[in-house]
Design a protein that fits this description.
With about 475 residues, the protein is of the alpha/beta class. The chain has 16 helices and 25 strands. The strands form 5 sheets. Strands 10-9-8-11-7-12-13-14-15-16-17 form an 11-stranded mixed beta sheet, sandwiched between helices. The longest helix is centred in the last third of the chain and has 16 residues.
Amino acid sequence: MKKLKDLFKDTDLDVKIKDIKINSKEIEKGDLFVCTKGISTDRHDFIDEAIANGAAALVVSKGDDYKVPYIKVKDVDAIAEDLFRRFYDDPQKELKIIGITGTDGKTSSSIITQALLGDDKCGYIGSSGYFSKYVKGETVNTTPSFDKLYKIFREFKDSGCEYVVMEASSEAFYYGRLKNLAFDYAAYTNVTSEHMYVHKTMENYANCKKQLFLQLRDGSYGVLNKDDAYYEMMKEAAKISYSYGYEASADLYIKDYHLYPNKTEITFVYEGKEYAITSPLLGKFNIENLALALLLVLKMGYPFEMIASRIKDVKVDGRMQVVDAGQDYHMFVDFAHTANAVKRLLEFVDTLKINKKIAVIGLPGHRDIQNRKDIGRILCERCDHVIFTMHNPKDEPVEDIIAMMIEDVKDNDKYEIIYDRKEAIQKAVSLAKKDDLVMILGRGSYTEMKVKDGHYHFVDYEEALKAAQEKLNKVL
C-alpha cells in the first residue's frame, strides 16, 4: 500500500492506495484508477464505473470535476508504465528475466526451464497463466501488459523467486507491451508462419521475434536454434549467443535420440562430453525444447548433472498430455495449432504402434486464417477420422472458421463437423477402439472458452477424462 504523495512528488494528497489498475471492472475499494487510452478505448469514459466500484483516486489528463481525489497530467499514457513500476517498487531490478520466443514450443520450453531451475526459484508467465511453487494466477494474454506484469513480478519476488521465465510473443513486441523491459537471458525455438493477421509478412513477424534479442542487457546472451532458417538473423541481434541443434558444431549438440510411446532417450554433447538422458517428454520437438532449456540453464552456471536429475519430473500440462482412465486405447491433449506443429506431432505419432488415428481440432476466431486450410488438409491426409469443432471463436462464426479448415478437403470422407467441442470429444472417444489414438488438439491447457457473449470454463483434459470414464462405466 502507498499514498498518492509517494507516487507523485508534486502533490500533498495523503490518500492511501491499495492497488493500481487500468480496468474499471477490476477496481476494488481503495484502488487507484489510471485513465490510459487504448487503441479504441478511452478509460476516462469509465470513471463513473471505477468510482462506483470503490476507486479511491484517479489519474487523468482531462476534466476537473470528480467525486474522488485525482491527479491531472498532460498525457496519462506517457507516465503510466513508470507509475506501475514505482508502485510495485520496480521488481524487475530484483529478478533475472528470461524471455523465450518462437512460433512453436514457447510454453514447453519455458515450463521446462522453470522445472530445471526449480519452481521455488523461478516463476513462469505465458499461455498457461503464471505460477511458481507459491504463486498461481491466470493471464488474458500470453505476454501480459505492464499493468499486470509488474504486479506478477512483485508476487514472484515476494514469494522467494530469483528468476522469471516468460513467453515473449511477437504480438507483445508488435503492440509495445515489452518495449521497456530488459532481459537477462533470451532464447527462441523457431519461426514459421503464424499471426499473419497482425504482421502481414514473414519478415515483419521475424523482426518482432528478433526484438527480444535487441532488448538483452549489455553482456547478456541468447540461446538460438541452429537448425532454424532465421538463426543468422537472431544471432546478429543477440551479439552474444550459444546454439543448440543437430549439428556437431552447436554448443549443445543433439547427437542421438530414440522415441518411445512413454519416454525419449537422448544423447547430448556439451563441452566435449556426452550425456545420456531419459526424458518423460515425448516427440522430437520436445527434444529441441529440452535442449533450449538445458543450454539456457547450463550457461547460467548450473552443472549438467544437477540439471539432468530434474528432467525426470518435468511435466507440461496440455502438451502431449496423456489422458488415462484405464481405457484400452490411447489419448492425449496437445496445444498444436499451427500447420508446422500439427505436422511434427503427426510425424511422432507415426513412429508409434497404433491402429487408427482420430483427431479433434478447432482453431480460434480472428487468427491465422492462412493456417486453417493447411491444418485441415494435413489432418485429413494423415488421420483416419477428423472431427472439426470450436476453439475460442469469440465473435467469429464457428461455421466460417470450419468452412476455411475444410476448404481443400470437401470431398474427403474422413471428417465430420460437430460444433460443440464437448460433444466432439465425446464422439471421438465413442469411436475409439483397442490400440487406437485420440488426439485432442489446439487448446492445450486453456481453461476458458471465449465466445461472442463472454467466456466459460472449459478444459480439454477434463472433458476427455470424463468422456473416457463414462465410456468405461457403460461397458462395465
